[in-house]
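A further point concerns the way the authors explain their paired sequence and structure data. Nothing conveys this as quickly as seeing an actual entry. An entry of this sort, consisting of the sequence and the corresponding backbone structure tokens, reads as follows:
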Amino acid sequence: MKKSRPAVMKAAAVVGVAALGLGACGSSKSSNTGSSATTASGGGGSSTSAVKIGFFGALSGANAALGINILNGEKLAISQYMAGHPKVAVTVDSFDSQGDPSQANNGAQKLIGDKVVAVVGPAFSGESKAANPYFAQAGIPHITASATNVALAQSGDKFFYRGLADDSAQGPGDANYLVKTLGAKTIAVIDDKSSYGQGLADYVRSQIKTDGATDVVDDHVDPNGQDYSSTVNKIVAAKPAAVFYGGYYDAAGRLIKQLKDKGYTGAFMSGDGSEDPHFITDAGATAAEGAYLSCACEDTSAAPSAATFNTAYQAAYGTPPAIYSGEGYDVTNFLLAAIKAGNTTPSAINNYLKTNSWTGITKTLKFQSDGDLVGGTVYVYQVKNGKITQIGTTPS
């Protein structure tokens, strides 16, 4: 990928916030769990209550596009809300995690100290695992639009919510697609050892055995590494019918390119962490062509319910919505619905999320007691003529 692009997009995101009038607002001196809407002076001597919704995710670094897409969806939802001159003003308070779990403490403490009433994110599973306990302790509801690691909903966190199906749906679905749809009986399963990548790959490993296929190569790669020849040589020697990679697009692009350079001709599949145009940029159009990608997120470009969103997103950012843009938009609108209903403290918003639902452009958001989504579909995409195209769903 072009390493300069995330930085440019980050700058554009910051400019976009300023252009939408989403400046910083004051906060009370009480603890965050008891904070409520503050009062700010408005034009003509009027007064307006104001709250902040946080964003936590990568806005720079190798896989920044995934976080930027979510933040753009969040900003669009808030700008549309603010256009209605609401009684309670809402601003975005963002933290760039760089996708690095070691930044979790800094990010959580920043947003908690800024008195946000809710957080969209964290975006990645590893950083979610590290940051979520801080938000839970502070009593701040946090909705991820993208983190799919199953264990995130098993910690007893009463303030955690997930806006898409988790890896217990995606991993088996991916395995079923490889075995039942593509007919692969020998599969190599590779991951990047991250909470997300290895967690997803482990579900694939288990399900392909249930489906009667064989895991002929089981290996890990360094997501920051450049030379994957050791793993590539194992795969080429084993000649599997398919390769599954659990990880993010930056490393996925390098892996498939090196596989194709060594003459590998079997199928290649990866999960939602790779379902981004940067996968094609990193791999090269020739190497990426034909690759399969999955995501518990639907392409909004052809969805009738998302037509207005698609047009507004294109106008705001000069680019069509991408992976998780719609999810970021939907989870933010659920939070805004809570605020519109008069819930301006973290605890009140949390209660609203637990007892209500929101029909968005991607799905209806309704949460189970552990914060996981009720229902959810896993979609399959394929790189066709240099574009990531939705082609169906995974079989059961």
